[in-house]
Write a structure and sequence with these properties.
Pfam families: Fer4_12. There is one protein chain. The protein has 6 helices and 9 strands, in the order βββαβαβααββαββα. It has about 230 residues and is an alpha/beta fold. The chain has one domain: TIM Barrel. It is globular. The chain binds iron/sulfur cluster.
């Protein structure tokens, strides 16, 4: 078993507790930076993979996040009215049972599901062969899988949404028939959202130089008091 294979017993470090709840670290109702089309993105809390150079180490711990019932999460995703759901982490397959329920509910409504994982495709296959039904169920409810750990020495400047060249796009059905052929022509997006309170959120992927260049042109001013 390689370092990035999912454990047959489940992720090491996950605290005992109700497995039917999803630990949600972040919910983004709509984005065009986390998969094909406009999608709702859910980052889950907890990751046993722990890639060196990970951009989200705050999501490694299985403590924290908001424990959310799958049915509630499905309602939130469908209310967002986007084309589909993208699951990111954290590590979705470390909460595979609950997320399979979420994915099933989203797909029953005709929306698509894209799942990112730091586990390799082979590691997931071996887990399924070893009897991990939760892993099998989440795979069965995923249309587009992006598999493999982030490798800081293999940064990918050409494909959208992924961090490194070893990460593999896997079409698990015919929901995105043209995706692989058009992948290298699909631009990576960096999405900057400023909400009415002035909070800035950045989604998507960019190399640090590009991010520095972008932020160099941003003038930060103190907020003006509201008129009243
Ligand atoms: S799988 Fe994702 S969240 Fe987990 S360590 Fe790797 S890059 Fe970070």
């Amino acid at each position: 078993m390689d370092a990035y294979s999912i454990s047959e017993a489940g992720p090491v470090g996950r605290p005992a507790g109700p497995t039917e709840l999803v630990r949600v670290a972040r919910f983004l109702p709509a984005t065009r930076a986390e998969g094909p089309g406009e999608r709702t993105a859910v980052w889950v809390q907890g990751c046993a993979v722990r890639c060196p150079g990970c951009f989200n180490p705050q999501l490694w711990t299985f403590r924290g996040g908001t424990a959310t019932a799958p049915a509630d999460l499905v309602r939130q995703v469908l209310a967002a009215g986007t084309e589909g759901l993208t699951l990111l982490g954290g590590e979705p397959f470390d909460q595979a049972a609950a997320l399979a329920e979420v994915a099933a509910g989203v797909r029953r409504a005709g929306r698509s599901v894209m799942t990112f994982t730091g586990y390799t495709r082979d590691g997931l296959r071996r887990a399924v062969e070893a009897g991990r039904n939760d892993v099998a169920r989440l795979l069965a409810e995923t249309d587009l899988l992006v598999a493999g750990p982030f490798r800081a020495d293999l940064v990918d400047p050409t494909r959208p949404w992924v961090g490194s060249t070893n990460q593999e796009f896997v079409l698990l059905n015919d929901r995105f028939p043209d995706l692989l052929a058009g992948l290298h022509g699909t631009p990576d997006r960096l999405e900057v959202v400023v909400d009415p309170a002035g909070r800035v959120e950045i989604n998507g992927w960019a190399e640090l130089d590009a991010l520095d260049e972008l932020l160099a042109g941003v003038e930060l001013r103190p907020a003006r008091p509201e008129r009243g």
